[in-house]
Design goal:
The chain is built from 14 helices and six strands. Helix 9 runs parallel beside helix 12. It is globular. A hairpin with a 3-residue loop joins strand 2 and strand 3. With 370 residues, it is mainly alpha-helical. The chain has a two-stranded antiparallel sheet with strand order 1-4. A two-stranded antiparallel sheet has the order 2-3. A two-stranded antiparallel ribbon has the order 5-6.
Length: 370
């Protein structure tokens, strides 16, 4: 049972890495600041650093996600119960990852705790569920939307005051235009004719950069450096916030040192991000809003501030909800939000908790029958 529990916990960590690791660096890829490979490598390094820091800084989250206070203590010490929670969470997150939906592992864990708890005949503390779990999950994206918008407007005002302007590259070249050319006998034949073409201002073909200098440094280069640092801060905060939630599943296996459990979660999370982050990367980078490097930096700064603050206070917020909320707040202000994909993402958030609850409940029945 201990071996199965360890494998199931690593499965949750893998699914979490695949679904969540790219979220911190999505703005780097979405704003064309760097390639996908560079972005996921930076995410892996900084997320792992946050996971290591969690060994020393996130003890409150370890206690919260052991299930204490949400379900009876007798259940939190049951390996069958915790195994069912891990299966319900991991299955839900990996299904969303394969479909390209960025969902909350926190939400999945909460739903699995409730579903397995109800199936086990325990009394779920719905008061604690609302206060300590659901309230932070609901409020965090709302705060992220507001903070993302406010920080962007503030930094935009500061940029204009400092005289830093935007510049667009102009794409000039030739396009092949197919024309119907007359032929002998009154016939026409299709022929490709090169036509001169100049395109300016299109986000799909031109890159928006910043012109001017700040403190003797190129404004564009400074923004890129700050953008990378903010993306690293978001990934670090995610590792700090998510690792203890997953490692808490191992607390019931008293024969395991929880510090080694945290290390195992950190490593497996990194592997999941490297191998299976592509679909969620496309959603986060290109389907929520268009952005330039400065706007991506703004969204990352908002996300890092909220997630780090929540981690230090033991609040189980969702990095997914905060990250998407920050990008959406930015998109609303810049009028570039892509509402159809955004509504799809929000819909996946709605079904995460009940889906995890159902899978965990079924898993509990199967585990008990073994």
């Amino acid at each position: 049972m201990i071996t199965l529990l360890f494998i199931a916990t690593c499965f949750v960590a893998y699914a979490n890495g695949a679904n969540d690791n790219f979220k911190g660096v999505a703005s780097l890829f979405g704003s064309r600041t760097c390639s996908y490979g560079a972005a996921i490598s930076w995410a892996t390094v900084t997320t792992f650093a946050g996971s290591v820091a969690a060994i020393f800084l996130a003890q409150t989250l370890l206690k919260n996600f052991s299930g204490a206070g949400l379900v009876p203590e007798a259940l939190t010490t049951s390996r069958s119960f915790v195994l069912a929670v891990a299966i319900g969470t991991g299955a839900t997150v990996i299904l969303a990852t394969l479909a390209g939906f960025p969902i909350s592992t926190t939400h999945g864990l909460t739903g699995a705790l409730v579903g397995a708890g109800l199936m086990a005949g325990g009394q779920v503390n719905f008061s604690a569920l609302g206060k300590s779990f659901l309230l932070p999950l609901v409020l965090s994206p709302v705060l992220a939307v507001a903070m993302g918008a406010v920080i962007y407007l503030t930094l935009r005002w500061l940029r204009l005051r400092l005289g830093v302007t935007k510049e667009l590259c102009v794409c000039a070249g030739f396009e092949q235009q197919v024309l119907a050319m007359p032929q002998p006998g009154g016939l026409f034949a299709a022929q490709a004719i090169p036509q001169a073409s100049v395109i300016a201002g299109s986000r799909t073909v031109c890159t928006q950069r910043y012109a001017g200098q700040l403190l003797g440094v190129s404004a564009g280069g400074l923004v890129d450096m700050l953008h990378f640092l903010s993306a690293g801060a978001v990934s670090f905060a995610r590792g700090l916030n998510d690792t203890p939630k997953i490692a808490a599943l191992l607390l019931v296996a008293a024969v395991l040192d929880i510090r080694w459990g945290l290390v195992a979660v950190a490593v497996t999370m990194a592997v999941g991000g490297l191998l299976n982050a592509q679909k969620v990367a496309q959603t986060m980078s290109h389907k929520i809003t268009d952005m330039n490097p400065g706007q991506g930096f703004t969204a990352n700064l908002s996300t890092a501030l909220l997630v780090t603050t929540a981690s230090l206070h033991g609040l189980p917020v969702s990095t997914t909800h905060v990250s998407v909320g920050s990008l959406l707040g930015l998109g609303i202000v810049t009028r570039q939000a892509k509402w159809v994909p955004v509504l799809g993402v929000i819909g996946s958030w709605v079904v995460t908790l009940p889906c995890a609850a159902v899978i965990a409940a079924i898993a509990y029945l199967l585990v008990k029958a073994l």
